[in-house]
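Researcher: Here's the sequence for the chain we discussed earlier.
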Amino acid sequence: METSSYNPFQVAQSQFDKVAALLELDEGVRALLREPMREYQFTIPVRMDDGRVEVFKGFRVQHNDARGPAKGGIRFHPMETIDTVRALAMWMTWKCAVVDIPLGGGKGGVICDPHHLSQHEQERICRGWVRQIARNVGPLSDVPAPDVMTNGQHMLWMLDEYEMISGEHYPGFITGKPVGMGGSLGRTEATGFGVIYVLREALKVLGLSPEKTTASVQGFGNVAQHAVQLYTQLGGTVVAVSCWDQADKTSYTFRRKSGVNLEELRAISDKFGGIDKNRARDLGYEQLPGEAWLEQDVDILIPAALENQINRGNVQKLSKRVKIIAEGANGPTTPEADEVLRQRNIFVLPDFLTNAGGVTCSYFEQVQCNTNYFWEKEEVLKRLDSKMTSAFSAVHDLACRQKLYMREAAYVIAISRVAQAVRLRGWA
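Model: Thanks. This is the structure I predict for it:
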């Protein structure tokens, strides 16, 4: 992965600047939308299991809330930076707008590695994060959710702390909660399934049958696993998946040309999506270097891990057979690599459209919590499919009408909606 000069917030701003010029936005709107409206950085002192106190750094960035309360995940990652959080918050603003849900963009995080923390230590970090930011978040202002290396249990600890501070029940404060504790059925599948709903529509417009396509997937966490699940249900064949090996501190790609077996790999993976390489070899999988996922001779690539994964250093390694890239991760493609993909006429499904299934279902969870009435899983996924399909159609129609790249068309729709909200409120 190329990291030397990569700054995700600068990438997010450059993407915005390009579309702002295309839309001829006035300077006031541009100045407002290219920076976060509010951001918080704070320390979280935690009593560790061995009795010592360790201080962790936490973040929360609220990029824009003109269309509704800020919305965005909280990630636990040892390499977290404020610029990463700023970029993700901005992308969340566009993500909510492109699928037309009444929310703005936010993001949070803690610099830590859950691999090396006990459950009790993780709980103390969660509660400490809430204590530091409780006055600046809430169901009507900023609604957090899970992200990289956080899950429903983390969200429930955070909800409990928030309710202890407020003295009242606020199930709509946070989403991604366990089912039965205010969580929504279908939330676990939502992001990965959303990726494939969008991919399915792309295959239709390209005249391709899913059962005649193959794919390679980067990542084997929640998003990747559910993307693999639905794609194979549609008849497609995943020939390779990659994952991070915590013991070796490196990534590997596991390939089986006849197709990977999802349940087989799930049975030998840990809760973070790390696959046991020895057991994988015993099951007949080839073990390749981590970056080999993008070199596979497949029709579809699905980056579903972290940002900055397809860049100028590796974009030329893509097989000439690749027709579609469905971005399941946030910011997986750098602008330099994106230009190469565009020149090669690869149909790129941009991240903030393709992976918007998670925030869409989070919005459904908020609605259910606020009405205290919960839908059946079939209804959740049906509504999700409808939202994702409608969003794809709007973006694709605009791209065809104005001869725009899909990423540009998605940005034009999203930024136009947010800019209009800003103007109507009289902010700029």
